[in-house]
Amino acid sequence: MERFSFLSLKAALILVFLVHFTVAHNVKRHGGAGDGVQPLSKIQIHKTIDATHENASVRAYPVLLGTTGKEYEWVTVNVVSPNPSSDDWLGVFSPAKFNASTCPYTEDYYEPYLCSAPIKYKYANYSNANYNKTGKTILKFRLINQRADFAFALFSGGLSSPKLVAISNAIVFANPKAPLYPRLALSKNWDEMTVTWTSGYDISEAVPFVEWGLKGEAQVRSPAGTLTFPRGSMCAEPARTVGWRDPGFFHTSFLKNLWPNSKYTYKLGHRLYNGSYIWSKSYAFTAPPYPGQNSLQRIIVFGDMGKAERDGSNEYADYQPGSLNTTDSLIKDLDNFDIVFHIGDMPYANGYLSQWDQFTSQVEPIASAVPYMVASGNHERDTPNTGGFYDTNDSGGECGVPAETMFFVPADNRAKFWYQADYGMFHFCIADTEHDWREGSEQYKFIEKCLAAVDRNKQPWLIFAGHRVLGYSSNSWYGQEGSFEEPMGRDDMQKLWQRYKVDIAFYGHVHNYERICPIYQNQCVNSELSHYSGTVNGTIHVVVGGGGSHLSDFSTLKTVWSVYQDLDFGYTKLTAFNHSYLLFEYMKSSDGKVYDSFTISRDYRDVLACVHDGCEPTTLAT
């Protein structure tokens, strides 16, 4: 039958063992909504057996997507099953040909029938409670352009013992290789902006570039470099096995000699070798301010957002329940902030590479308009025996490669994800908590150099950020461990924060919001709650890991340094009005309203004043 033309012969349907790991947060550490398990890892795709039925059918339409230039399309799928059951499910596979001929030979398996997980799935009765009786249903899927065609497969037997019942026709975007999902980021130089995007064009097919310029004026073209990564760059399962999907190509261009605070327009281009051009739609951004410039500057900080599906696929409400709320709240407020810091745990792909495309698509309205700066988290980096500080497989074998390749950060070495960034009156030191930060380490030296480099007269607001909580948190598992921090977290860092008078330290990893008093050596040094002024005598620590992933409970033990706690999804915003006045706000993602805030007011002499470990040596000489 034609619909099975891309399958192996039935004789080849015998499955052999394929190692398959379920990668997730440590469940005992992460309570709250959801079970913390990557939904795709629940599918034991390697156990699939043939149960194709001549009276079963799956039909998808429209067959050609994106004819109006959109990067997403809603697809209708008609399903008919002669033997319906409540655990039937429909998977979306891309590429559409997902049989044994697409599987690489390895010593672990020989011609497995299904060697790749779907990119998303729904239960067949998702939109029709009568499916179990009628065997008929209509499902709607929202597909984004992911450089390949798609097919829908109906399975019975649930996720743990799947039986292939029927496969649909293939559908495809009009230009599957189109340049998509631009991500802006700061460069090392203040007057530059980088733009990175994804396409299906290698440099052997087309030359990538950006056409850009001041809004309303003549446009120029800047070249772009191209990167990708092969399956062999993945360090463990499932990224090397059922989670692998060709990532496409990533292009980065440097837009230079920008005028501060000026509006620029840009679009992504590829010049094919036949002389024709492929273009993206047009985008716009505002150039960064000069370091130290006295103007209104607004910063968003959060962590652990994850990704979610707008069509209800993957049971996302049990995995990243707040992700879309955070995304949509930021999109709605896009005119009221200038830059975003997403401090680790981005899509929680956990080795299922298709999820990275879906994440970049989800944040594209934000990342294409303002710099979207990222940090490395355990779900980007951690894989055993790969040089990280933690010997767990939280990344599902990705070992940092997708994050380092798909997002630009101004680091000397993106495999070591620490870097500094300047934005007007702010100086940021971004740590990579998945590598050793202890005194004597390479990263410790970088952090001290970064903190020491700032001129507090020009950039009074000094910010430290990292994924894991190196400072203070009242989270339940930290309470059980008795540290209320990442083990060894503040042992060495605390003296740097105090010596260089860091204003605020941000963390993710713990999926809630918590504000700590200005603190030094476990002691609150300021009893104020909403306004801090005068001498900088302690660092305010903020946990802002409630970006969207399942929530983390607080400890029942009450910590004396905790000022505000919220077991909900949200993000924070810093607003610098000038060199002397800063506003901090915490918003819930559900409504975008402010639920916690404080202000800091001070003069330059307050930063210079001698406190604790932050005293410069003096002499009695005159």
List keywords for this structure.
single chain; 622 residues; mainly beta; seven-stranded antiparallel beta sheet; seven-stranded mixed beta sheet; 9 helices; disordered N terminus
Question: Could you write a compact summary of the structure shown?
Answer:
It contains nine helices and 33 strands. It is mainly beta and 622 residues long. A hairpin with a 5-residue loop joins strand 32 and strand 33.
Spatial order of the strands in the main sheet?
11-12-15-14-13-16-17
Residue runs with pLDDT of under 50 for 5 or more positions: 1-32, 106-112
Q: What does the overall shape look like?
A: globular
Helical stretch tally = 9
Radius of gyration: 25 Å
Structural class by secondary-structure content: mainly beta
Helix content: 10-25%
Strand content: 25-35%
What is the makeup of the main sheet? 7 strands, antiparallel
Q: What integer is the average pLDDT?
A: 91
End-to-end distance, in Å?
97 Å
Count of DSSP strands:
33
